[in-house]
Amino acid sequence: MDRTRAMQIFCRVVESHSFAGAAMSLSMPRSTVSRAIQDLEAFLGVKLLQRTTRTLSLTPDGSLYYDHCQYVLDEVQRMEAVLSGNTRKPRGRLRIGMTSSFARSIVLPAIKTFQAGYPEIDVVLTLGDRPVELIQEGVDCVVRAGIPKSSALLVARKIGSFEWLICASPDYLQQYGAPRSLEDLAQHQVIEFHSGLTGRAQDWRFVVDEEEREVGVKGSLAVNDTDAYVTCGIEGLGLIRIANFLAVQHLRAGRLVQVLEQYKAPPVPLSIIYPQNRHLSSAVRAFVHWIGERVQNVATDWDWRP
């Protein structure tokens, strides 16, 4: 039995709260994970995990062993880094969560440069805006908009920010005219975007006379997918509010027109979030550096002007 590998599997089971989650994050069959834990318990002569049909919890011996495993594995990683002089090329599978719109607009057009720089990293993009439990789901890092919830287990690093723009199609504006004030929004067709995080539409926020102001918007059509939301705007179904990095291509092509540009919205931070670990994997470290540079390089294009 490879005890170091068994310890790694045991720790991942504990952190994932399930054998299936650990198997998925480690890219191995569930039966292999289960057998590794059984062999480890047989070798130690103690029960490490208490299993029921619905829950998985540490026994007192398991809790003690988990703490020591964490210490030992951290020390192994630290020593390997010292001995290798950090010259080893990043490698392995890297699972990254982000919204499909961010992937399509920012990441995918340049992902070849990341792959060329790190050919031994296999990138798996997990797309969507639902909450992701990084440790339990075996996701290495996620890119998210807004201010992430604080957690002692996670690190959030700001990589940039964006602004909301209110847009409509030329056909819509020709038929209904353009809103001139925030009060005019109540007289217009507004497409609601239902967030995957909350399941409901958010009020639109603006900065008026150096104070934040929220405007409630309601419409007869709502969607929960960014591509569909943008399409609604292009097809003249109503006003939409989208990130400037999504709007810029449609504004330049004339498919959308910005309205109410005199009312600025508070900038929205973009963060990359990853588990707190003294020895962050070289693959995650490489992507954090790359995505930070990528966002900064394209940020000037987001500041669209007609």
From TrEMBL:
InterPro entries linked: LysR-type_TF_proteobact-type, LysR_HTH_N, LysR_subst-bd, WH-like_DNA-bd_sf, WH_DNA-bd_sf
Example of a GO MF term: sequence-specific DNA binding
PROSITE patterns per UniProt: HTH_LYSR (PS50931)
Record keywords: DNA-binding, Transcription, Transcription regulation
Family annotation (Gene3D superfamilies): 3.40.190.290, Winged helix-like DNA-binding domain superfamily/Winged helix DNA-binding domain
SUPFAM superfamilies: Periplasmic binding protein-like II, Winged helix' DNA-binding domain
GO biological process, one term: DNA-templated transcription
HTH lysR-type domain sequence ranges: 1-59
UniProt family annotation: Belongs to the LysR transcriptional regulatory family.
Name of the protein in question: LysR family transcriptional regulator
Native source organism of the sequence: Advenella incenata
Classification lineage: Bacteria, Pseudomonadati, Pseudomonadota, Betaproteobacteria, Burkholderiales
